[in-house]
Amino acid sequence: MADIWDVDDWVENAASLPVRRFYPSAVANFTGLPLEQVFTRLLHLVQGGALVLLYEIRCPEYDCARTVKTVSDKELLKFDFECDIHGEFEVTPGMIFPVFEFNPEFKKRMISKKKRKSQPTLKPALIY
Ligand SMILES: [Zn+2]
User: Fold this and answer.
1) Ligand 1 mean position to 54 CA, how many Å?
2) Domain ranges (residues) in the chain
3) What is the pLDDT of residues 104-116, one digit of tens each?
4) Most buried by CB count within 10 Å: which residue of 44, 60, 100, 119?
């Protein structure tokens, strides 16, 4: 049975890999948890500073859906968005896709944590 901590495990592991951003659906698919629950947990990690929430703006044209820009929530209302093929468009909620980016410091930490883990551990005799 998956639980909410599996989200944290997934995030920590993914942070140690050459991945910069990910969709919440990737975590939901992997853990088997409902997307809403995963999203809530990811927002918690955003508050903790491990992740940054960004928004992909995709072209509204049917059969296009290319990502024209990835922005933070503050930038969301500032830009005119333009598809290379279909030109300018106004953003509506259906064109906004949340994507999470690793905080670079968090990523560094997870990479070095993984390296440490793969090194031989101290023998109990040396700990005492
Ligand atoms: Zn387009």
Assistant:
1) 20
2) 1-50+103-128, 52-97
3) 999 999 999 988 8
4) 100
Ligand 1 centroid from CA 37, angstroms: 32
Please provide the DSSP assignment of 92-128 as one string. -GGGEEEEEEE-HHHHHHHHHHHHHHHSPPPPHHHH-
Name the pTM for this structure.
0.84
Can you say whether the dihedral through the CA atoms of 8, 10, 14, 19 is positive or negative? Answer: negative
102 band by pLDDT with thresholds 50, 70 and 90? very high
Q: If you measure from the C-alpha of residue 48 to the centroid of ligand 1, how many angstroms do you get, rounded to a whole number?
A: 35
Residue 82 has pLDDT above 90, yes or no: yes
What spacing in Å lies between the alpha carbon of 87 and ligand 1's midpoint?
7
Q: How far is the CA of 51 from the centre of ligand 1 (A)?
A: 29
20 or 76, which is more confident?
20
CA of 43 to the centre of ligand 1 (A): 29
